[in-house]
# Entry
Amino acid sequence: MIIKIKNNATQEQINELKKHLVNKGFEIHESFGKSTTIIGVIGDTTTIDPNSLYAYEYVDTVLRVQEAFKKVNRKFKPDDTIVDVAGIKIGGKNIVVIGGPCAVESNQQIQEITPLVIEAGAKILRGGAYKPRTSPYSFQGLEQEGLEILSQAKQKYNIPVVSEIMSVDDIDLFVKHVDLIQVGARNMQNFALLKELGKINKPILLKRGIANTIEEWLMSAEYILAGGNTNVILCERGIRTFESSTRNTLDLSSIPVIKKLSHLPIIVDPSHAAGRWEYIESLSLASIAAGADGLIVEVHQTPETALSDGQQSLKPEKFKTLVAKCKRVAEAIDRTLE
Ligand code: PEP
Ligand code: MN
# Structure
């Protein structure tokens, strides 16, 4: 970190700042120019908020030369992380497709859809049991019963399951029933939840917040890794922009940016990005081409009567076509989708 000191600062003031930093365990490297003094701060500066240094009246500019995140940083771990979700590996050469309904609606629904998504090529089944709905009057999910339904499908069809957690109080229930715990966009900065998820070793699917930067997203992942859980998969699901033709704007550029900054795998959710089933195929193919490690797609037998997000859910046969096309893109970029 580099701190530029204002020209009118006294030596006494500079010494005060140096003392503050030395007390925090940093080494200081001072450089005096004709009119400017620069202080180089050496050590693990991830523990300092650069903005807090502007409280010193004589600090002119603070520049980070290293990212604020450490454990998720590719500089810290150059090799790609491969997360094992009950035997399904996410990251590395292989591309994994996750499919299933937005919400678990009934046991019958899950019993019907599971073999269909497996047949189409999905390796993990999705299904929300606790639904973060904008309206309190919309279907809120089957909660514990929904997790139990997923768990039964997992046993019967031998497929790992993913579902979204909304509260710290439900962690034990999720650890018992699901293989991959999803933190939804709305909870990306629920730091109390992230801290608790850092203490377990179940894989976590961390979705990007609706209006969060890539750095904020990586800082949220850092919370989980800092707690000791290194099994984190990132999920780009679109961000809110001025564009209203789609539900969100899929930030495809986050894929190469994440690949550069972090070793964590990244998958894409084209359903919540697009908000319309017609756009899912195109966004999925583009995501694979851009380097995503997988997809999570909403699939429903009868989207017309779905209790949530039917408008952005593919019918099983369309999902099957989508996976077949994704396979071809994967092969074209020397990756595999089995
Ligand atoms: C979901 O996956 O069901 C969901 C609610 O997604 P997001 O958190 O991305 O909105
Ligand atoms: Mn949904």
